[in-house]
Amino acid sequence: MTNATQKSHYWTGFRMGVPFLLVVMPFGLLFGVVATEAGLTTLQTLAFSSVVFAGAAQFAALQLMVDNAPTLIVVATALAVNLRMAMYSASLAVWIGDAPFWTRAFVAYVNVDQSYAVSINEFEDTPDLTVPQRVAFFLGAVSPIAPMWVVATALGIWLGEGIPEWMALDFAVPICFLAIIAPMMRTLAHMVAAVASIVFALVLAGLPYNLGLLGAAVLAMMIGAQVELWLTRKAAP
Predict the structure, then answer these.
(1) Per-domain residue ranges for the chain?
(2) pLDDT digits (tens, 9 = 90+) for 95-149
C-alpha cells in the first residue's frame, strides 16, 4: 500500500467531513457562550472542549453544574450521554481493530458522532478497504471537525452576547443530531430504539437533575437490543 493511496482516502474522508462544519461551528459557538455565561473561565471552557471533547455531554454536564446538582449526578449524566461512544468504539473495532495501539487510542480520543457516522457508512459500503485505508479515511473525516470544535468554542467565549439572536445557535444541537442519526436508521431495532428514547424522555421529563434522560437512554437501549435479538431469532433457520 502506498502513501499516495492512504492520502487519497484521507482527502476523501476530509471532503465528507467538511459539510458537518455547518452544525459543528454553531454548536461550538453556543457552548462557548453558555459556558461563559454560566461562570466558567476562558481556560476552563477551552479545557472542557479540548479534554472532554463531547458536545452533548458538555451541555448536559454544564446545565447540571449550573443547577448545583451533586457531582455524582453530573458525572453519571455525562457518562450516560457518552455511553454511545462505547458502542461506537465496539463498532469501529470490527473495522480498525488491527491498527497499532496508539493509532486506536488517538481514534478513540477524537471520535465524535460525525466522524463515526461518516466512517462507518463508508466502511460498510466499501468493505474491501484495508485497515490503513480505513484509518486514513477516519482521520480525514475528523480533521475538519475536531480543531474547529475548539476554535468555535473560543469564538463563542470571545463574541459572547455579541452574537445576534437571528443566528439561532440553539438550533445547531438538534440539527446536528438529526443529520447524524437519520442516515443510520437502517433497521427496525434502530427505529424502535429511537422512538422509545423519545417517548421515555417525554414521560420521564419531570425527574430532577435530568435523570429522565438517563432512564430514557437505558430503557431505549434495552428495548432496541431486545428487538435486535428477536429479529435475529426470527431470521435463524
Answers:
(1) 3-184, 186-237
(2) 999 999 999 999 999 998 888 988 998 998 888 999 999 999 999 999 999 899 9
Nearest to 209 by CA among 86, 80, 84: 80
Instruction: Yes or no: say if 174 and 46 are a contact pair by the CB < 8 Å rule.
Output: no
Compute the radius of gyration of the chain from its Cα atoms: 19
Q: Cβ neighbours of residue 71 under 8 Å, at least 6 residues apart? A: none
Distance between CA atoms of residues 166 and 164, nearest Å:
5
Rounded distance between C-alpha atoms, residue 91 and residue 162, angstroms: 41
Query: Using CA atoms, how far apart are residues 3 and 193, in angstroms rounded to an integer?
Result: 41
What does the DSSP 8-state code read for residue 18? G
For 191-235, what is the HEC assignment? HHHHHHHHHHHHHCCCCHHHHHHHHHHHHHHHHHHHHHHHHHHHH
pTM reported for the whole predicted model: 0.72
Which stretches in the chain have pLDDT values below 50?
A: 1
**Which residues does 69 contact at the CB level (< 8 Å), separation at least 6?**
209
